[in-house]
Specification:
Residues 116-155 are annotated as: Disordered. The chain has four helices and two strands; from the N terminus they run E-E-H-H-H-H. By secondary structure, it is mainly alpha-helical. It has a domain at 43-80. A hairpin with a 5-residue loop joins strand 1 and strand 2.
Length: 155
Amino acid sequence: MPVRCQSDASQMPVACQSPPLTIAELSHQPAPKQEAYRFDPDAGIKTFQQLPKVTEAMARDILLQAAAEQCCRGRDFIKDLPITKVEKHLGLALRLGVLPGGRYTCWTYKPFTGQEEVDSRDSGHVPGPWDVELKPSDMFEDEDREGIVPHTDTV
């Protein structure tokens, strides 16, 4: 690509200026390289160290709030509870649980009026209970769902 330079009397280039790029030249420019992500094993410690210091008053307020939400007895003792030391520590809470799932089929009955379409075994293969797709509305929440097993109508 040609570069235009202005020179002073001593013939030394003072300022060089590239001509504007055309669309064709712009389309052949390589994409800028993204800086590689570097894992920082101390990131959690650095964030932990930036947390504000918990004062005795803050600790007492947190205890009073937790007692109001979870306890059914009085909480007046927290106001007089001596707090001797407040320390911050890294902690990890892990909750493991088993969410059993079950499916069963049962008959339901309604009068046949002749107006409904009958989805019988002649319409296709009857799937098993686990082959019928029922998606949960919320993950890891107890829920009862009902669905119709296709091709099981009888008259």
